[in-house]
Design a protein that fits this description.
Shape: globular
Strand order of the largest sheet: 6-5-4-3-2-1-7-8-9
Oligomer: single chain
Order of helices and strands: HEHEHEHEHEHEEEHEHHHHHHHH
Number of helices: 15
Length: 363
Amino acid sequence: MHLAEIAALRPVPAAGLQLALTRRCPLSCAHCSTDSSIAAEQHSGTPFRTLVASFTHEHHPEVILMSGGEPLLRPGLVADLATRAREAGTRSFVLSGMFFARPGRAVPPAIDRALSRVDHVGASVDAHHEREVGRGAVFEVLHRLAGRVPAVSLHVTGGGDDDEYVAGLVADIRREFGDRVPILVTRIQPTGRARHGPPRASAAPVMPCAFAAWPLVSYDGTVFGCCRQSLLESERPRHLVLGHAARDGWEALAAKAAGDPVLRALRLMGPVAVRRRFGAGPALGTVCATCVTLSGDADLRRRVADYLESPAGRALATLARPEIEHRDPYRVAAGWGSPRYRELIGLGWEGAKHAQADTGRHR
């Protein structure tokens, strides 16, 4: 599954499911949005297994996205979830900090087995990671995975389009892999250990919220209708809770994620417009900070639902849906990351699509 395919699904409600398998991580990157560490709490893997086991051929997400912390600290869980998901028709992606990558050393057997079960391996490489895991070691692992894993990608976090480190790293990746490995370049966000970094503008624009499309299963099994992991762990806003992975199956959770009136309004108008139109006044700081305040309004859900069922609400939803649920991976890459490097998400994609088409014609 190519990285561009995953990005194209990103705006579609319940097309994917994010699984935060652990908050533990052996690295101590200064920009970690979840403030993960090797001493962090870790909950049972049972809720994750229970939810994925509820996937059926009729009701399943297109892809599960496994993250952490460092998900490959639980290689058996990663392998089990990827295997079970595939049986239902769901593909799998795991994003790793590649803590195990060391020049000249083999990948630990348990991690190697887990990587061989997934459909896509994403590797993080950036200035903070490189203080502990060098890019050369990561490149070596990706070369070893070629032919064994259907797809790989590199995920670079930096300071923006003018970041010289990012430019150098991207050039290095292109020299190493050519067009064979897609790259997603994103910006460091002021959350987790990066929250004390350089200040950013606090203005909250009026815009739809892309975070409210894919559900997230948090470390303890709580399922949220938003995938902004760092926000959910610190604030746990009630209006974004969909249920729990140990109790609620995918069919019910997906229906709620797609149909919940507050989530629909957030995708349609964004938290700022929802608060202004249905809540208690103007925006408060950032978009996410404004969204958190919506949990304090007990009557908000009814007012939002009434509007969405009105002729005006139905008309707005019909007109806006194609724009909100666009399937343009390059637009997603620019919106979530760096406009300068957005085309890199599609490296090798056109060739892969042509190969798939040729395979289909010759069957």
